[in-house]
Amino acid sequence: MAKKLGKKARKFAHKHLQGGAKRSRKLRSQFNRRTRKDGKGREDDNRLDGDGDGGGEETRRNDAIMNMNDDVATLANCLEFPEDENELDGDLSDSDGYLSEDPECMYYSDSDDDNVLKECIVQDDLGEQNNEMRLAVKKQKKKLKKLLDKDPKFANFLEKWQLELVNYESKEDSDEEDEMDSVENGVDSGDKDPPSDKILTSKTISEWCQLVLDEPKAPALRNLLNAFRDACQFGLKSNSLSMQRLQSTEVFYQIISFVLSKADNIFRALLEISDDDKGKLMNQRNGKKWQDIELLIKSYLWNSLDLISQLTDNQILTYVLTQLRTSAVYFSAYPSTSRRLLKILVRLWASGDQNLSLSSFLMIREVASLLPDCLDFCLTKTYNAYLSSSKIVDNRNIENIDFILNCLVELYSLDIQKAGERAVISVGQLSAILRQASKTKGKKIF
């Protein structure tokens, strides 16, 4: 006969070996019945199957006690609000690509000064060769004129063939012009993919930035947003187009810093909004001016999302989020994109880095205040992130948990009615857990 486990061993087995303990209790309830007061021993075969009243009641009681501990864990998980993961990126589905560039917008090399000197030398050499060729042509014309004067029949023969040659050349020129037109049309239709040999240099970006600052409607803005797209995907793949066009980190930081810091002012200038009134900007969403530049705005927002979702350096992320906060009003025009942004921001907010958490929270609050439709999603995400961060509390993360809690209170204060409804639900869940825990303790399960 197996030795009976002590109290501590039974408690350990119940706490850490729930499956084994549950099976043992079921077996004991079926085969090791205690002797009843009337002197009867084991139950009959029907009681073994749990069909009898005594055995079935004992089994149900043991199963209920066993399931209480599982119910507590289940209720604890139920503190988290359910999240809707059916997020759509349909708002920016047509912005994942390059914008059509103006062919007249120049690309510059960092060594253009040296190239100018080389071009001058080459032009001088070509000038000398041209002079020599002109002298040789003049000599041949003089010889031909003397020959025509001596032989009139030969002169008539040359005139006849010269007319036919002129007609033939004019026909060939017209055919070539048609072919060139068709080729040019084909190039224009595929201009959305810039050639891989167009390298983005520091001088090129500086020239484009100056053009855009002088005139926001300049064609250089499209080129600059394409460069921003390459910068946001820089380093993802070694053989990608962005790695071919961006060949230095200096150009990367130059593009990122200019576009993030000046995008809001540029778009406001294109929308002809002079002040910082967000209400005027939000009222422009269905206007013609917004539709004219909507593709530019979508490209900027889509690439900004890619940037913050791929960066791993906390200092760069903090800088990017600080600069991107002024663009929260543009994100609010696209609800599903705002949900994707909030999902990224909540993850960064709960990361534990103080500066990054603060920058993330400031933008979370900005988006939530501008777009009430996303407030429920925002409150759910942040509350669940707080619960996840609070599962383990020690001296290292106590300050971060306190900071997250204060941020959560500030977010819930944006809408007192919704905050009250969620508080009632949370209190009800907590009371259910405490009630279940008190019952379980009464059964001496712990």
From TrEMBL:
<dbReference type="Pfam" id="PF03715">
    <property type="entry name" value="Noc2"/>
</dbReference>
<dbReference type="GO" id="GO:0030691">
    <property type="term" value="C:Noc2p-Noc3p complex"/>
</dbReference>
<dbReference type="GO" id="GO:0005654">
    <property type="term" value="C:nucleoplasm"/>
</dbReference>
<dbReference type="InterPro" id="IPR005343">
    <property type="entry name" value="Noc2"/>
</dbReference>
<dbReference type="GO" id="GO:0030690">
    <property type="term" value="C:Noc1p-Noc2p complex"/>
</dbReference>
<dbReference type="GO" id="GO:0042273">
    <property type="term" value="P:ribosomal large subunit biogenesis"/>
</dbReference>
<feature type="region of interest" description="Disordered">
    <location>
        <begin position="169"/>
        <end position="196"/>
    </location>
</feature>
<feature type="compositionally biased region" description="Basic and acidic residues">
    <location>
        <begin position="38"/>
        <end position="50"/>
    </location>
</feature>
<feature type="compositionally biased region" description="Acidic residues">
    <location>
        <begin position="172"/>
        <end position="182"/>
    </location>
</feature>
<feature type="compositionally biased region" description="Basic residues">
    <location>
        <begin position="1"/>
        <end position="37"/>
    </location>
</feature>
<feature type="region of interest" description="Disordered">
    <location>
        <begin position="1"/>
        <end position="66"/>
    </location>
</feature>
<comment type="similarity">
    <text>Belongs to the NOC2 family.</text>
</comment>
<keyword id="KW-0539">Nucleus</keyword>
<protein>
    <recommendedName>
        <fullName>Nucleolar complex protein 2 homolog</fullName>
    </recommendedName>
</protein>
<dbReference type="GO" id="GO:0005730">
    <property type="term" value="C:nucleolus"/>
</dbReference>
